[in-house]
Amino acid sequence: MKLVDIGANLTHKSFEPDFDRVVGDAIAAGLAHIILTGTDLPTSKAALTLSENRPDLFSSTVGFHPHIAQSVSTAHMSAAIELAGQAQVVAIGETGLDFNRNYSPPDRQFALFERHLELAVELQKPVFLHQRDAHEALHDLLRRYRPRLSGGVIHCFTDCEAALMDYLELDMHIGITGWICDERRGELLQSLVSKIPADRLLIETDAPYLLPRSLQPKPRSRRNEPKHLVEVLNTVARHRHEDAQILASQTTENAMRLFGLDDKVVHC
Asked: In the predicted model, is pLDDT for residue 168 greater than 80?
């Protein structure tokens, strides 16, 4: 079984003390490739450096999270554009809209999101999207750009069925995290995951966030790691009433196709 974690924040400072151990455990758990998420300029640079050093294991994204939209300057965006053209960068993002916390004004989020979409169209790389309490606005802009985009994924999907159907109608991929392993918050997602077409389903950890609550025994640390992608896979398989091995192969093939990983992941 070979898995692809389409979103892990391994440049997070919590991984500095034991990065090599975390990577070794991920490989031992069956991970064949990890896409490292860029959420600002420093993490985008660090993710690219890691992926250039280990192209067999890592790829990266370049982008600015909507939380920091108000602090992203023209110079920051210019630097990101230069990074985004590198071969190891396989997606534009993390980008999108977050009206739940509104750490940045909605108009600044919207403008930055559109700039990411323009870049994705220019480079013909898929988008890695964040959306929270902003479906209508995000969907409206995404729909306008979708004919020119190469593709994309709604990262860490946790929304309702109507939103899911809207994204699927745009031929987007859907990323499922350890949120589905939460017996409290994940109930709706558990009921919806079977509605995602097999060729549009992706899995991710969003490490160090969203540690699966269903892990047994419970880890001492609340830090999530790529090795726990196996728990996400098994939980998704259970709620889809599918074989985990078959689902592993399908999600890996989906990731390879969307992000152009054919020369990085051994076919399973």
From this structure: yes
Q: Is residue 213 within 8 Å of 181, Cβ to Cβ?
A: yes
Q: Domain tally for the chain?
A: 1
Domain with 236, as residue range(s), is: 3-259
pLDDT at 268 over 70: no
pLDDT of residue 266: 58
Q: Which CATH number goes with the domain that contains 155?
A: 3.20.20.140
Residue with tokens 């064949």: 32
Query: Cα–Cα distance between 128 and 90 in angstroms, integer?
Result: 10
CA-angle at 42, arms to 37 and 46, nearest 5°:
60
Q: Are 55 and 34 in contact (CB under 8 A)?
A: no
Cα 5-44-128 angle, rounded to 5 deg: 50
- DSSP letter at 175 equals E
| Beta strand residue intervals within the chain, DSSP E | 3-8, 31-36, 58-62, 89-98, 127-132, 152-154, 173-176, 201-203
How far from the centroid of its chain's Cα atoms is residue 200's Cα? Answer: 13
3-state secondary structure 106-157: HHHHHHHHHHHHHHHHHHCCCEEEEEECCHHHHHHHHHHHHHHCCCEEECCC
